[in-house]
Amino acid sequence: MGVTVLILLKPYSNVKPYLDTVFNQSNTRTNGDSQVNFFQNEDLDLNIQEVEIEEPVPSDDSNSSSTETKVTKHTFIYPYYGDRYATLNIENAGMKDLPVYCGTDESLLEMGVGWYNGSVYIGKVGNVVLAAHNHTYFYMLPAVKVGDIVTLETSYVKMTYIVSDIVVFHETDYTYVLPTKGKDRLTMYTCWNNGYLGMSEWRLGVLCDLVSREWKEVEVPQ
């Protein structure tokens, strides 16, 4: 209702640039080794690649500052823009089997959660960023608590995280959506209005640390 009232009060041509800023719609770009800006069509095959992942190895010494890594090879199925990419679950907050799409434009956010294609691909080391509207798929995000378990599952990997922090930040603060070199994190965010629905210049962010990667067997077409 809040969004409807805002749109009725203000022409969509004025609201749209604000939506673009909120969900990085104008910042879509080619990410690394996949052409994620393009919708898949009949001339484009599945983008399946063998990828080497340099994963941090957890240390038994909690006081140690050194980080060891290991290199493993896995099969990725890279999404095209607009593809159904993953499924998100946070059962303690009542968020079950939420569809995650590749991209964050308005048409995709109407169908589910958006994966920001300026962040790392799911399964790679770094900061995976998800966004959704607070009146639809991230309606229950304020119910998420520190310590909750989050799973993000694609056709090639299942990522399990634990919520480590809840933050509120201004729309001009990009601290939490920037890359995290060598450190795994899942960042989820939506508009924040102190519990009310609708657009805002503030964001509610849920930060998660990686618990595990579970790789799947992927059949590569010959």
Structural features:
222 residues; mainly beta; Sortase, Chain: A; 8-stranded mixed beta barrel
Description:
Residues 1-35 have low confidence and may be disordered. The protein has helices at residues 2-9, 12-22, 106-109, and strands at 47-57, 68-78, 84-90, 95-102, 113-115, 127-131, 149-153, 157-170, 185-191, 202-215. It has one domain: Sortase (Sortase, Chain: A), CATH 2.40.260.10. The strands form 2 sheets. It has an 8-stranded mixed barrel with strand order 3-4-5-6-9-10-8-7. A two-stranded antiparallel sheet has the order 1-2. The protein has 222 residues and is mostly beta strands. β7 and β8 form a beta hairpin.
Summarize the structure.
The protein has 222 residues and is mostly beta strands. The protein is 10% helix and 38% strand.
What's the helix and strand layout?
Blueprint: H1 2-9, H2 12-22, E1 47-57, E2 68-78, E3 84-90, E4 95-102, H3 106-109, E5 113-115, E6 127-131, E7 149-153, E8 157-170, E9 185-191, E10 202-215
Parallel strand pairs: 4-5, 6-9
Antiparallel strand pairs: 1-2, 3-4, 3-7, 5-6, 7-8, 8-10, 9-10
The amount of beta strand, in percent, is 35-45%
Main-sheet strand order equals 3-4-5-6-9-10-8-7
Mean pLDDT: 82
Q: Which sequence of SSEs, written as H and E, runs from N to C?
A: HHEEEEHEEEEEE
Residues in helix, %:
10-25%
CATH-defined architecture: Beta Barrel
Number of DSSP helical runs: 3
Summed up, the domain count is 1
CATH class: Mainly Beta
Query: What profile does the largest beta sheet have?
Result: 8 strands, mixed, barrel
Overall shape: it is globular
Structural class: mainly beta
Radius of gyration (CA) equals 18 Å
Q: Which residues sit in consecutive blocks of at least 5 with pLDDT less than 50?
A: 1-35
Q: Span from first to last CA?
A: 51 Å
Q: What's the number of extended β-strand segments?
A: 10
What is the name of the CATH superfamily? Sortase
CATH topology: Sortase, Chain: A
